[in-house]
Write a structure and sequence with these properties.
Layout lengths: L2 E5 L7 H10 L4 E7 L18 E4 L5 E5 L3 H12 L7 E8 L4 H5 L3 H10 L5 E6 L19 H17 L7 E6 L9 E3 L7 E9 L5 E9 L8 H7 L3 E6 L9 H5 L3
Parallel strand pairs: 1-2, 1-5, 2-4, 5-6, 6-7, 8-11
Antiparallel strand pairs: 3-4, 7-11, 9-10
Length: about 260
């Protein structure tokens, strides 16, 4: 029987995590290990200066654990403490509330960070996210049923089943799945590449009651990009984006071009 580890960055009580576990239910033995609280935006950070703990939680019949750390910590604890080093056949991270598209989010998303960590051990991994209309929704606690995961659950199950059956193509470590807000089960899945940016970054300066400045990092969304990018596919074409990612970030160039610099 296949073994599937499910994690996220929105926290162990997030409704998207329950949706992800439901999506792969029946495809194998499902084990859930996720952060005990909201950990969005921490990327692939790992706790090296404090000890970690985990505790079993009530999770609608699934074997589930809350980990006092980051999404990457949760994957590490899940594999090497809870599963005793017996590598799962698949890791699913999500379903995240908020799209994770472009290099901006791929390098900062805890959802994708968890999937990349699993992939570093040779485990096929999927990061799944749904688009939100209100960007503020990305950072809520997500304990309630505000968001509809029905389509995402169906699509994720389809993708996960194919990965378990066929594996990932050579050179692919993670599939980054993003479902538009108004997608249906019949919405086309398009294989995409990462857009360069999704945010026009700005910084807001404000002042506390003592007149000292503090800052909010802010930025408008870029909603249109080149053809075949994840941004264009989700925002403009309203289609499901499936982006193959690799752990190897080495630039695909003739190394002699860099040699000349030195």
């Amino acid at each position: 029987m296949h073994r599937i580890l499910v994690s996220n960055d929105d926290g162990v009580y997030a409704s998207g995590l329950q949706a992800a576990a439901k999506a792969v239910q029946g495809l194998g033995e499902v084990i859930v290990a996720a952060p005990s609280g909201q950990k969005s935006g921490v990327g692939r950070s790992v706790s090296v200066f404090e000890p970690l703990r985990y505790a079993q939680v009530n999770f609608n019949g699934f074997q589930a654990y809350a980990v006092t750390g980051t999404p990457v910590d949760s994957v590490i604890i899940g594999i090497f403490a809870i599963m005793k080093g017996d590598l799962p056949d698949l890791v699913v991270s999500g379903i995240n509330v908020g799209e994770n598209i472009s290099t901006d989010t791929v390098t900062t998303s805890g959802t994708i960070g968890a999937a990349l960590e699993a992939a570093s051990y040779g485990i096929p991994s999927i990061a799944a996210s749904i688009q939100v209309v209100d960007q503020g929704d990305k950072f809520d606690m997500h304990h309630g049923a505000k968001h509809d995961f029905e389509v995402a659950t169906t699509v994720l199950r389809r993708v996960a089943g194919k990965v378990l059956e066929h594996g990932l193509p050579e050179g692919v470590d993670v599939l980054n799945l993003n479902i538009p807000a108004d997608a249906t089960e019949d919405t086309e899945i398009v294989v995409t590449r990462l857009a360069r940016k999704i945010f026009r970054t700005t910084v807001q300066e404000r002042f506390d009651p003592r007149g000292r400045p503090y800052y909010w990092i802010d930025g408008d969304l870029i909603r249109s990009d080149e053809k075949d990018t994840d941004v264009q596919t989700v925002y403009q074409d309203k289609k499901i984006s499936l982006t193959p990612l690799t752990l190897d970030s080495t630039a695909r160039i003739d190394f002699k071009e860099v040699d000349r610099l030195f």
